[in-house]
Amino acid sequence: DLLLSQTKRCSDILKNLSKDQLKEDNFLSDIKIEELLGEIIRSFTEISEKKIFLSRIIFSVSMIAVMVTFILLRLVQLQIYDSDKYKLRSMNNTIRTHSLPATRGIIYDRNNHVLAENQPVFQLEMIPEQIEDVEQTLNHLIQLEVVDARKLDLIKDNVRKNYQFKSIVLNNRLTERQMAVFANNRAVFKGVDIKARLSRHYPKKEIVAHALGYVGIISSMDYSVFDPSIYTGQEQIGKTSIERDYERLLHGKPGNEKVLVNVRGRVMESLGKKPFAPGSNLILTIDTKLQEIAYEAMKDKKGAVVGIDPSNGEILILVSTPSYDPNFLSRGMTRSEYKVFETNKDKPLFNRAIAGQYPPGSVIKPMLALAGLHMGFIDPTKYEPCDGAFLLPNYSRPFRDWRMHGPVNLKEAIQASCDVYFYKTAVKMGINNMSDFLSKFNLGTTTQIDIGNEKAGVVPNPSWKKNNFKSKENQSWYKGETVIAGIGQGYMLTTPLQLAFATSMIANKGKSYKPHLVKGITDSGLNKTEYIEPVMVNYLDDIDLKHWEIIHKGMKAVVNQKGGTAYGMFDNNYPLAGKTGSSQIYSIEKTTGDNVPEEFLDHGLFIGFAPPDNPKIALAIIVENGISGRTAA
User: What does the pLDDT read at residue 23?
Assistant: First the structure.
């Protein structure tokens, strides 16, 4: 439009000029025309340039606006929506916090001999959150033979159920070769590293295994029992006995360390530590020398030995055989290895001392004799005939004795272990009186020892039978069952620990203390030991002293007088009172004749206390399939 208006103006000027003026002023007219044309061209050029400049400005501003908008949106995403993710990634690439597992408490015997200690080992650990492909990493480590392929399922289970950013132990005892192989390939395993740790070691091996228990790698089940916040995933945890039941004291509290790492995960420097609190040390009541003697005597047999100090309930001996080496278990086993161990027919993991339930046999006789005296069913001066068998009225089958004893009084009945005498006593007392009195010796219930998995045993009576059998015929109590209960047979079951505890009550003439394995607890931080006070258990405080004396005389005669079932097994006038026993586990038909399988043979038992006048130890011994308490136990 401007170009047209300027052209029109030029045309109008030319029309108004005369010919003379054009002639006279031709040069000037040419100049004016040129100027006018130049002005037209300049106006057109300026307009075009303005339009081009304006369009470029608009494009540039639009592009800048788009870019700024994109940057702002990205900042919102990074700083608001993904802030935690990138903050964590940033921290992982620069500063990391390593957990410092606490040192496990040491376990000593009563004489300060070390029973469980810690030894340095190198183990391979992995933090799953720092690994892109966990399964690929594990397979690569298996190919390099630094991780056992048989443990893969267990490792994966721990990865799934473990708490975030806690180390998973892949191999808790690396060999020198495995450490060298991993070191050569360290760069490709981000999130996996070798750590120096402390591993449990048991210097006495099998000798104290069932008293101490053992430790192992933390499992998902352990995390459901104990507080996960105090575990780093790198340490071992108690699995059985003292190690398990005193886990909270032995474990301690972990610390942590902040370290600066490079992009490959290698530690550059430490930025500060919070130290761990070591676990408490335990002092046990066990006497290692006595334990060793008992184990040496029993190591080729199946059975148990329990020895208690009657004056305070401290357990001096707790042996169960066959035993196992807890070092082997603490190093870690695959599920298949453990299955073979667990299914061993001799059951080396089974703690017979506290969980083995056996018919007590004749070792129950001193307790039933005391019951008969206390209730007035026995006259200690009266002699009862024994012709080798006892018959119940209207009962055709005789209850046999192991030999014919002739007339015996109570003391002699204990001394010679006369079954007929106690058959008659049982019938006089009745099963309910027997059951009630034996319960006062803590039979039929746990002793509440300070380790778990103790069994209660059985002291039978009509109400027990009614509650434990389904058919009405089996729920009835028969007189013959009362008779055999008089010699510790039938349904009656006891543990070696219960028998040792009952023997300590006989030794102390009624006074007794709750059995316990821990003598003292030492706080590692304060270096202060707190000793466990004995807990008195007095169920038999109303027994006449002269009745106790008769029982003691009978048990001394077992060992030191001719005709005693243990006479000749010890030196003359040996300071020991005791009682032998054998418990039948199969019918006589199966246990007589040639080539009787060992598992059909009777168990051999012995209880005793020494010295009789001032008892320092009460013992219960059982030898499975040992036939006789005299020769085996």
Answer: 52
b/e per residue, 243-277, with b = 16+ CB within 10 A? bbbbbebbbbebbebebebeeebeeeeeeeeeebb
Lookup: tokens for 552: 């003691």
Tens digit of each residue's pLDDT (9 = 90 or more) over 175-193 = 889 989 988 888 888 888 8
Pairing of strands 617-623, 603-610: antiparallel
Burial class (CB in 10 A: 0-12, 13-18, 19+), 174: buried
Q: Roughly what angle, to the nearest 10 degrees, separates helices 152-161 and 134-143?
A: 150
126 burial type by CB count under 10 A (0-12 exposed, 13-18 middle, 19+ buried): buried
Q: What local confidence, expressed as pLDDT, does residue 462 receive?
A: 96
At 314-363, the pLDDT tens digits run 999 999 999 999 998 887 776 777 788 778 899 999 999 999 999 999 99
| C-alpha to C-alpha distance for 136 and 150, rounded to whole angstroms | 16
| Rounded Cα distance, 599 and 25, in Å | 150
Distance of alpha carbon 10 from alpha carbon 13, whole angstroms: 5
Whole-prediction pTM value? 0.78
Is the CB of residue 306 less than 8 Å from the CB of residue 498? no
Residue 400's pLDDT is 93
Catalytic residue positions? Answer: 362
Going by C-alpha positions, the residue among 145, 161, 286 that lies closest to residue 218 is: 161
Q: Residue written as tokens 């005793």?
A: 608
